Amino acid sequence: MSALWTHLVLNLCQVGFILLFAPLVEGVLHRLEEIIQGKSGVSIWQTYRDIWKLFAKDEVVSEQSTWVFRFAPIVAFVMPLFVVLLIPALTAYPLFFAFMGDMVAVGFLMAISGFFVALGGMDTGNLYAAVGASRTHMVGFLAEPVFIMVFFSVSYVANSTIPYFVNATWGASWTSMLQPAHFMVILAFFLLILADEGRIPVDSPAGKVEIAMIGHSKGLEYSGTSAALMKWGGANKLMVLALVFVNVLVTPWGLAQSTQWTAVIAAVGLVLLKLLAFVIILALVETTLAKLRLFRISEFLAVAFIICLFAVSIRLTGIA
Amino acid sequence: MITVSPIMLSIAGSVAALFVVFGLGVMVSRQMLASLRFFMGQSVALTLSALVLADALHTVNLLWVALITFVTKVIAVPLVLRWAAGEEIYGRREVDQALEIPASVLVAAVFALVGWFAVAPVLPTLHDVPFAAINLPTGLIMVLWGAFTVALRRESVAQMMGLLIMENGAFFGSIAIVHNLTVIAEIAAAVDVPIVALVIGLLIRSIRRVTGSTRVGTLDKLHEH
Amino acid sequence: MNTEWLPALILLVPLCGALLALANRRSAPYFSVLAAFITLLLAISAAWQVEAHGPLSGSDGLFYLDALGALYLLPVSFVYFTASLYAIGYLWARQQEQDKDAAEPRYRQYFPLMNVFALVILAVPLVANLALMWIAIELTTVFSAFLVAYEDRAEALEAAWKYVALTSMGAMIALLGVLMLYYGTHAAGQAPTWDGLMTAAPHMSAPLLLLAFVLWLIGFGAKTGLVPMHTWLPDAHSQAPASVCAVLSGVETSAALYMLLRIYPALVVNPGIHDPAAWYITAGLITVGSAAFMLIQVHDFKRMFAYSTIEHMGIILTACGIGAAVHEQGTIYQLFAHGFTKSFCFFAAGLAGIIFGTQEIVKVRGLISRSPAVGWALILGTLAIAGAPPFALFLSEFEILDTGYSSGQYLSTGLLTAFIVIAFIALTYQATRIAFGTPDPAQEHTSPAMKIPRSSLAAMVIAFVPVLIFGFYLPPPLVHLVHEAAQLLEVQG
């Protein structure tokens, strides 16, 4: 098999990896949080069961809705899979689609999914969905400058925004790992994940009260296959962001260095371990913080912004 | 001149980043307890920095600084503060601010710039002092942020937090340039911090006893008519 | 006589006073007065030694006292003594005023703290090491916080909190400056003392020295009461007991000013720093000007004297910049005389407060007819502090302005003159309103004539002696000491 084909196959393996393990990551996260909160909690396989159950159910679609409503879950499901083609999920070397887009493209793909989900939510005329959509976009607008600053600082350090190259730059040596700017970017990106994924302290994913929801009220109208796709897509998105975080920013090691199958399978194990560590930290953060009031979210993101600003200015002034 | 490996410089820089981030946390956190935890984190960062510098510069004195910092600031001061503020430290959700946090965060950025430009002319003269380029600007920035925190907060415990991060900043800046504080000055400085914390803690308790709250924003009787 | 242990002894006596006061509540005031008196005698003998044999040093270089330090030590120990004596009757009278049924005086909190407070102020001129000086100044705030809040009302606590927050903030800023100077002196192979700093200063990097100085100016400036960091000062003085005000205003604020004065020659000898005097003149004139205008519209006579303290701190700083330091009766003499005069003013103001039961100027008339002694004390004190002849501050202010005009600094000296005149008019106007006129009969009815405490009156009389004498006559040893101190600040730029 030629190298080109191997790369293509590996690239598709990454997609399979996400599809297979994303519900598990979410399940582990839920279980951990419930353990920390002193509950016994549901099985870590619950998300798989939910998705399976939803696929088997009938779907109800409002007569008032348009094609946007039916199209949105597909976009939400597919976009994280496109993203995973661009990032180092399992291998340290660039794969077939690696140069199709950089980190900015990752941001765009995520934004398209968010855009369609918001439109789909509003399409049925559900009041809560409209409120949720507008709140999500408020958070989105506030998060936007932070995203841009993260890209600036990453590209300034790595001289590239291709995720594979960024990964290689950090991982080159301990000296390049242990940089103040690197720390700050990691921290800011973590705060961004919290905001973008609607985790505590920005939003409460376990909340059941529609009026207090930010992002989760947009999917209330979906049922059957569409609901399954939304749920699976949500799990994919969380896992993709977590992969960018752990593989590109925090720990750029443990990925397959060769095209050997054994190396790739070892990488699957190691990446899952890193994700487990990430999920533990996320669960700890979520359970120790309280949800912020809506108008305090700007404070949260202002802090993330300023941290990024420092990361960039530290590089620019050459302090360290 | 002491040569220092680049890896030590990067570690010291990372600790400085941690120090700044914790300082930012003290400045912006809305809850007293969170603010206290950030302060403890910052003191741990100061301890770490002293340890890193002690190792890189082979200075035993800095080990003492690390030990003293840890004992006084990570252990003693939080105990005093919890005692001073009583249950209010757990009870009250939000600390009053004079300025909205996003605005104050921007002001903090400006202060950081001011601090940097104030130190910039000094740094070339310290080119043979390793770590000065990292620690001195960081320290000065934290002194400015602490002062800003005192001005910003309408709450005695939070204002005291500002004073304490100023002190952390002064020490963070100076451990890079001064390793020869006489033992007596070191001991005195070690005694000084708990005494200051204790007396301010007592004052906070008195304010709470007399006015029923640790809020000082409500104390505004004194001014020229 | 072995003078090695004299500085240590000066610090040991107040410490013993504090411990005894803590141990025995009933005789706490007497132990304190005794400790303060012994300290005063020791301070005079230390100054004598410095005058006769040059700087004192002791305990392996832990202590060091030169002429400038001695000149500061004298007012500190004197005010410590008079304030301790004054407090005995004053505190009791205040307490009775607020609580008619008070059975016995509540001295427990006051006297131990007062002794420790005096101890740390005394330590500032005595210790040799810059870091220890900083610690002493920091501790003055800490130990006086509860003296300011002694009356334990919400307003008093507010004043104490402002005082602690602002001056500790200043102290932290100054700390970084102190540590930078530590580095500077060490890099030049010198010890971190005033002498070491002077030797190292020409070789120190100018930006480092300048940054350290700016941190000091802001940091110690907050403690000194330089505008705009002065806001704590009138509040604290309006709420603290008058005996505490006397120490705070007379000597504690000048502790930080003492540091700022002593770093001045180091700035001048450094070739890289251009025109350090401009910093002093600017900061000083802003302070004097603001204080002078605040004096016009002040409503509370204890606040009035507080603003006058701000004004004097500004005058001393400006004078240092103008170059009056080198003249024998200039800057240093102003610092020296201000300590005595301002404490006397607060003693009089405290008793006036007891007589009237209020500190508001509009409610107070005819002090002289109510109590001639306190009334005339207030008038004389105000005249003395405003700089009227024949008092000591007239001599020093005249000298300062003369230096300014004769060296051609017309703008700064002209402004300083204008501000001093405004402050003079404001002070004398307010004081005459209080002292003369007929007392409001309604008020006399409501507040029965308070008996003036005898110990406070005695303390006020003792405090008046130097205020009066130093205007006419300065003993030759003191003249010599002032001359020596001026030499320490005199440098060829």
UniProtKB/TrEMBL annotation, chain A:
It is a multi-pass membrane protein. Keywords: Membrane, Transmembrane, Transmembrane helix. The chain crosses the membrane at residues 6-29, 67-90, 96-119, 139-158, 178-195, 238-255, 261-285, 297-316. Coiled coil: none annotated. It is found in: Membrane. It holds the Pfam family NADHdh. InterPro entries: ComplexI_Subunit1 (IPR052561), NADH_UbQ_OxRdtase_su1/FPO (IPR001694). GO terms for cellular component: plasma membrane. It comes from the Bacteria. This is Formate hydrogenlyase subunit 4.
TrEMBL record, chain B:
It is a multi-pass membrane protein. Residues 140-198 form the Cyclic nucleotide-binding domain. InterPro entries: cNMP-bd_dom, HyfE-like. One of its GO terms (cellular component) is plasma membrane. It is found in: Cell membrane. The keyword Transmembrane helix applies. Its main location: membrane. Keywords: Cell membrane, Membrane, Transmembrane, Transmembrane helix. The chain crosses the membrane at residues 6-26, 38-56, 62-81, 101-123, 129-148, 160-178, 184-204. This is Cyclic nucleotide-binding domain-containing protein. It comes from Acidithiobacillus marinus. The lineage of its organism: Bacteria, Pseudomonadati, Pseudomonadota, Acidithiobacillia, Acidithiobacillales.
Automatic annotation (TrEMBL), chain C:
The chain crosses the membrane at residues 6-23, 30-50, 70-89, 110-128, 134-151, 163-184, 204-222, 243-265, 277-298, 305-326, 332-356, 376-395, 415-436, 457-474. It is a multi-pass membrane protein. Residues 129-415 form the NADH:quinone oxidoreductase/Mrp antiporter transmembrane domain. GO terms for cellular component: plasma membrane. One of its GO terms (molecular function) is oxidoreductase activity. Keywords: Cell membrane, Membrane, Oxidoreductase, Transmembrane, Transmembrane helix. The keyword Oxidoreductase applies. It comes from the Bacteria. It is found in: Cell membrane; Membrane. This is NADH:quinone oxidoreductase/Mrp antiporter transmembrane domain-containing protein. The lineage of its organism: Bacteria, Pseudomonadati, Pseudomonadota, Acidithiobacillia, Acidithiobacillales.
